[in-house]
Design brief:
Elements: E1 2-9, E2 13-16, E3 19-22, E4 34-40, H1 62-73, E5 76-79, H2 82-97, H3 104-107, H4 135-144, H5 151-162, H6 187-190, H7 204-220, H8 223-241, E6 287-288, H9 289-308, H10 313-333, E7 335-336, E8 341-342, E9 345-346, E10 352-353, H11 360-365, H12 371-381, H13 414-426, H14 430-445, H15 478-492, E11 494-497, E12 502-505, E13 515-523, E14 526-534, E15 540-548, E16 552-555
Parallel strand pairs: 12-16
Antiparallel strand pairs: 1-4, 2-3, 5-13, 6-9, 7-8, 9-10, 11-12, 13-14, 14-15
Length: about 550
């Protein structure tokens, strides 16, 4: 049976002839809202439901005011290109709208009995399909948007830390120290008919947690916030060194144990996403190239934290040594000389998965590979079979499994391209980063409201063509919106060190984007405005205006 509850209404309901009725009187320009909850009941038992979010529908509520405060306090980016500026504005508004109040208590470090924090921020995965807490997505967005606001990072770290696994449960792919992949609150989860209560079938969420904690600290500089998540980070590192390495060979592998779990546990998590040269699905356990790079970056970043903040030099030395050893394994076991890129991964027999994919682009973002091979990867990612004109494909068009309309076998994902562009900048491949940015913003211009979808088809760009949205894509989707901010931050070359009171700006603006104004950029307790310009000779100038506190702003060219 279904029970209908009037949870919220601007005028009282009445029961009239077997129907719920309202009397509505509106002045010109006024509005009226109601929210109905449909609650299924199974026999004598009723599934548990999360707190309703009906107040989110009413303009002027606490939620709306909190959203406005976040947007007004976040960094503001404007450019000489009105289209780019509009794309950024839409992305920021969408990010604010995807905040989930359900997780405020955990994100604020409070018990449910205490007053709910109005300014804790945890992003949903996307609308309409993924309005829930996804570990990988929340942490990815946190890393993408640290230059916009560190709120997502701080909120996500606390909320995910509260759900960190403390034992083994194969039915949920759960292991001690692992960070959750997804939590659901519907009737299937309440009746334990799906494993998402929460489900832990994401390998990189745990290493992303470590990397996010270290990266966020460089921007917010809040020792108390860092101390609060340090125990979670240490448990995550322990998982990486134990259960994350299934066979003890020093590599990170995943293998699904849950009957209803995900076969693939990287960001490309569709069942057919990881395929070999002949198109056959790779056997488990699988060691993806970027999972190795994530651990390299996470351990190096956390080594800096424990050395500088906690004065634990021996621990820092150990972490760096472990990261270097894994980086060496990437070079010796994953390099594909024939194609000038890295293998997608190693399969269950530790044989190379010979598919040219976008995954090695993440290795550049993570600074996990040598400069010489990074240059080769950049060239390979922008070759004709990978570059569409709108973006980099997830899989080469020359691969037998290529399908431009698929989920992850040749489609284009905005967040994937933002990480590639960031990686290009890390290694000094500025022209390549600008090429990706051009395709990225050109694609955004052709979608409604300049709102990039979760993904679009990997079709070749030609005169008169347009990017084709994937059927069923989330719009908006959190890390697609975050990618917009990440692309701009990459072009500006922003790198903060809040504890040292420093901000490095290393711009590489393209000819078509000659000015970016940055307002309210926050590093620690300082806030600054920047105006970065590119002249006709390709040289960059910067104007700095402090709003609050002191910050040593360094321009590197």
């Amino acid at each position: 049976s279904i029970m209908i509850e009037v949870a919220l209404a601007d005028s009282p309901p009445a029961w009239v002839n077997g129907a719920i009725a309202f009397r509505v009187e509106l002045e010109p320009g006024a509005s009226w809202h109601t929210c109905l909850l449909w609650r299924p009941a199974f026999g004598k038992s009723r599934p548990q439901h999360p707190p309703n979010q009906c107040h989110a529908l009413v303009i002027g509520t606490d939620r709306d005011k909190a959203q406005r405060r976040w947007v007004d306090a976040a960094t503001r980016f404007t450019t000489n290109d009105p289209g780019v500026t509009d794309t950024v504005r839409q992305a920021v508004e969408d990010l604010a709208s995807m905040r989930m109040e359900r997780h405020d208590d955990a994100a604020a470090g409070e018990s449910p009995k205490k007053r709910r924090s109005k300014d804790a921020w945890v992003p949903a995965g996307g609308i309409p399909w993924f309005v829930s807490l996804f570990g990988r997505d929340a942490l990815t967005v946190s890393l993408q948007t640290v230059a916009l606001s560190s709120r997502f990072a701080q909120g996500s770290l606390r909320a995910l830390g509260a759900l960190q696994a403390d034992g083994y449960d194969d039915a949920r792919d759960m292991q001690p120290g692992k960070i959750e992949h997804e939590v659901r609150h519907g009737e299937l989860a309440s009746l334990h008919l799906v494993p998402h209560t929460p489900y832990y079938g994401s390998h990189e969420s745990t290493s992303l947690y470590v990397l996010t904690a270290a990266t966020a600290w460089r921007w917010h500089g809040d020792r108390a916030a860092l101390d609060a998540v340090r125990p979670n980070v240490e448990r995550a590192l322990n998982w990486i060194d134990t259960d994350g390495d299934i066979d003890g060979d020093g590599l990170q592998e995943y293998k699904t144990r849950a009957p209803g779990g995900y076969y693939n546990q990287g960001w490309k998590d569709s069942g057919d996403a990881i395929v070999g040269r002949d198109g056959r699905i790779s056997e488990l356990p699988i060691a993806l190239c970027e999972h190795q790079g994530l651990v390299v970056a996470a351990k190096r970043a956390w080594a800096d934290v424990v050395e500088r903040v906690y004065d634990e030099r021996a621990a820092a030395t150990r972490l760096r040594s472990e990261a270097d050893a894994l980086a060496e394994q990437i070079e010796t076991r994953f390099w594909w000389a024939e194609e000038g890129t890295y293998y997608l991964g190693l399969d269950g027999g530790k044989k190379p998965i010979e598919s040219v994919s976008s995954n090695p682009g993440l290795l550049l973002w993570l600074r996990a590979v040598t400069p010489e091979r990074a240059a080769s990867v950049a060239t390979r990612l922008l070759a004709d079979d990978m570059w569409t004109g709108w973006g980099i494909r997830t899989l080469s068009a020359a691969h037998p499994s290529y399908n431009p309309f698929s989920y992850q076998l040749g489609s284009v994902w905005p967040h994937d391209n933002a990480f590639a562009a960031s990686g290009f900048r890390n290694y000094g491949f500025d022209a390549q980063a600008c090429q990706v940015a051009r395709g990225f913003f050109d694609a955004a211009e052709r979608f409604a409201a300049r709102r990039l979808p979760e993904l679009f088809a990997g079709l070749e760009r030609d005169n008169g063509s347009f990017p084709v949205q994937y059927l069923g894509a989330n719009v908006p989707q959190a890390w697609a919106s975050g990618a917009v901010v990440q692309i701009l931050a990459a072009l500006l070359g922003l790198d903060a060190d809040a504890s040292a009171g420093e901000l490095v700006v290393r711009p590489a603006l393209p000819e078509w984007l000659t000015e970016i104004q940055v307002e309210r950029l926050t590093v620690g307790k300082a806030s600054v405005d920047l105006r970065v310009q590119r002249d006709d000779d390709g040289k960059h100038n910067i104007d700095v205006s402090m709003r609050k506190g002191h910050l040593d702003v360094q321009l590197e060219t």
